[in-house]
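Review form for a predicted model. The reviewer records the input and the model, then writes brief findings.
Reviewer: anonymous (R2)
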Amino acid sequence: MTTSTATHKADATLQRAWAVLETVPDPEIPVVSIRELGILRDVRRTDDGALEVVITPTYSGCPAMSQIAEDVAHALDVAELRPYRIATVLAPAWTTDWMTADAREKLRAYGIAPPTGDCGSAAPDSGTPQEKVLRFVPRALPAPSCPRCGSAHTERLAQFGSTACKALYRCLDCREPFDYFKPY
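Model under review:
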């Protein structure tokens, strides 16, 4: 059982925990935090008074989740925010819709093309569940713009880039390769 959203705002420890966890970077893309990526879903109190940190992987086999949990634990330990538990939840599944606008801009500045469009999913804290259409045939999306020169004249070189959640593209104008964070 967890507390209400109104209690979240009145609880200074929860506010402090959110602030501390806002600084935890994604281990694979250190220019964005786990909160900006939407991996950090909630920080709440349990009935026994412990903090519960809820995280969701970008995909169910994400190898960075153990590192993210360790980084969350370290941040909470350093801030002396004990006791706590870290819960990894898979449902609802993470979506690139949960990324903040700041995260998208930071990705672009870092040289990774952010996901284009949206997937039609509700934000994790909106309280509005939405059905997600399961597609067995990928929908055609426009090629991402180059994060270096801004050209839309790009081509996909490989379905998977430096990590499974990214694809490898090349700009046909500036000729630079770049990762594209695939929309989910």
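Findings: Confidence is low (pLDDT under 50) at residues 1-6.
Further findings: Residues 65-78 form the longest helix (14 residues).
Recommendation: see findings above.
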